[in-house]
Structures are given as structure tokens and as C-alpha cells.
Amino acid sequence: MPDATPPAGFGRPDLTTFARLDGLGLAVTGHRLEPDRAVLACRVVEPDRWCHDCGGEGRARDTVVRRLAHEPLGWRPTMLEVVVRRYRCRECGHVWRQDTTAAAEPRAKLSRGGLRWALTGIVVQHLTVARVAEGLGVAWDTANNAVLPRASAC
Ligand SMILES: [Zn+2]
Predict the structure, then answer these.
(1) 52 C-alpha vs ligand 1 centroid, how far in Å?
(2) In the chain, fewer beta carbons within 10 Å around the N or the C end?
(3) How many domains does one find in the chain?
(4) Residue 117 lies in a domain
(5) 49 CA distance to ligand 1 centroid (A)?
(6) What is the domain extent for residue 111?
(7) Given this model, what pLDDT does residue 12 score?
(8) Does residue 65 fall inside a structural domain?
(9) 92 C-alpha vs ligand 1 centroid, how far in Å?
(10) pLDDT at 149
(11) What is the whole-number distance in angstroms between the Cα of residue 98 and the centre of ligand 1?
């Protein structure tokens, strides 16, 4: 019978840590491999269920999906589809979304990992914006708008 126990020094396979999403407050719940990209379905690890206005308890209402371009893995663009919960406060009716600032800046289209990859590509490896956009699987404008303010500060 073949022995499937990993040799010493190996952990169990874990997409969340492999894709470096544990540091972004996300956990992978599924993956879909398409011909030209990989898509990782993620959930936000921290619940964030207390009202941002009055501190009352929120009731989970529904979810929205936030799409982010992440660092490419194996030269294949890797996209995140993050399921974000929306809550409504039982006390005051305030509605909010689960905090995803660990994963990406507000309104950003790149994850923090994707942004770091893009900046390293441009500043350290002297890749063009076009090459970085191709790696991330995003439009040129999206890559340029994300990196331009930061690359000039490096
Ligand atoms: Zn409230």
C-alpha cells in the first residue's frame, strides 16, 4: 500500500497559505481553473458583526462579491472572488460590509499581494506596466492607476 504521509518538513497542502492569503485576512473556500487564469473563492476570516455606529449586534443580511487581482501564481493570473457579508444593526438599522482592508485598500482592484507583486515587478525587475497588467490579468489603466502613485514614491 502506498504511503501518503508527507515526509518530514512538509505541511498539509493548503491553498490559503500557498497563495499567501492568510496575511490578508482571507481563507480560500474553492478554486476554479480557467484556461488563462485561476480564480480563488475566498471568505473574510474576521466576522465584523458589531455595529460601526452604535456597537449593537448586527444580523447577517446577505453577501456581495468583491473581485481582486492577486499576485500571479506560476505566470497565471490569479483572481480572488471574496464573499463579503453585509450586516444590518439590530439596534439602529445601520448597514455595513465586513471589513476587507487587510485584503486590499478601499475600492482597490488589486489585493495587497497583487499590488506588492506589481510594485516589485516595476521597481525591482523593471517590468513594463503592460507586462505587469498582463501578469495580473487586468487592464493597463487598472495596473497603472494602482502602481503609479506608489512607484514614484519608492
Ligand atoms: Zn447600530
Answers:
(1) 7
(2) N
(3) 1
(4) yes
(5) 10
(6) 18-151
(7) 87
(8) yes
(9) 4
(10) 80
(11) 14
